[in-house]
Design a protein that fits this description.
Rossmann fold; two-stranded antiparallel sheet; 137 residues; globular; 6 strands
Amino acid sequence: MARPSGPSGSPTGDIGVLDYNNTDGNINILPLLKTIISHKIPVWIFSGDQDSVVPLLGSRTLVRELAHEMKHSITVPYRTWFYKDQIWMTEYGNLLTFATVRGAAHMVPYAQPGRALQLFRSFVKGQRLPNITQISF
């Protein structure tokens, strides 16, 4: 697990440089997500529909099971959201949101920067993703 380290690389109690290793990918973040959500802090998880590293179906299932385990019901059913094209999202208990980013692989901001920015913008503003297309005149 990543641990703060001092200048010599020895663990310290101070927040410093994080030293990651090849086992960090196996860390279960579900307990952390549960803690965050239990403190009423919104969490958004998104996945590219072309992600071969963490497939869309696996991410969607994980979020649905997490919501079920925390007894959050669906507040917004799986529906489209728009940014120049349709994309999908669902929301559980007004705190846990899962969004699919069309045309994106594992690194969503790299593959779809406009859509990633719309996700980030909506999250920071505390707004739901737009569900109508933007008409420009």
